[in-house]
Amino acid sequence: MCIVLTGTGITDLRDGKVYNWWLVLGLAAGVLCRGAVFFTGAVFFLIPSFLLFCFRMIGAGDGKLAAVTGGFLGIQDGLFVIMIGLFLGALWSVGRMWRDRSFGLRMGYLLHYAESLMGQRTCFSYDDLTGLEARHRIPLAACLSAGGYLYLLGSAAVRLGGCVL
After folding, report:
1. In this predicted model, which residue has the larger pLDDT, 122 or 104?
2. Which residues lie below 8 Å from residue 49, measured CB to CB, with a gap of 6+?
3. What is the value of pTM for the model shown?
4. Which 8-state DSSP code applies to residue 6?
5. In sequence order, what are the residues at sequence separation of 6 or more whose Cβ sits closer than 8 angstroms to the Cβ of residue 87?
6. Please, which pLDDT band fits residue 131 given cuts at 50, 70 and 90?
7. Phi, psi (5° rounding) for residue 16?
8. Is the pLDDT of residue 140 over 80?
9. What is the DSSP letter of 18?
10. What is the pLDDT of residues 58-103, one digit of tens each?
């Protein structure tokens, strides 16, 4: 799992994408380690990830990485990892908006999107992440990877602390 997290995080930072062969490696490792129960966690995360991808709120690789992570760790631990990763992504995003002084612009864009979505009662992409808007892209796989490592380190610390007491 750690190899997949590292590989996907690095390639997302470097190339702006998550390569499917990393995800296939994670899928194979997850099935070998967890058996058929892997698919329960993977499907649990794949469905909402697919919906977020349809709205272009996350990339396809990010959603598949969330599914592999959830399949490998299970639903409860996978939720912790994904939530930590999303929190780190939100911090990264706020930091970038602060640096670019674009917080008001981006919040206005979000408000306009929400108003349009409610007014038109139809689904459409939040952002196509091409052209000028691509600079607002956050490498979510790197954030999910960091979330995975933070969770694993925290879990190890709790286990070690429990042994000492």
Report:
1. 104
2. 58, 62, 63, 64, 66, 67
3. 0.82
4. H
5. 147
6. very low
7. 75, 20
8. yes
9. -
10. 889 999 999 999 999 999 999 999 999 999 999 998 898 888 887 7
The rounded distance, in Å, linking the Cα atoms of 11 and 19 is 7
- What are 40's two structure tokens? 């329960």
Q: Are 30 and 67 in contact (CB under 8 A)?
A: no
d(C-alpha 67, C-alpha 20), whole Å: 13
Amino acid found at 128: D
Task: Output the DSSP codes for 51-109.
Answer: HHHHTTSS-HHHHHHHHHHHHHH-HHHHHHHHHHHHHHHHHHHHHHHHHHT-HHHHHHH
pLDDT at 55 > cutoff 60? yes
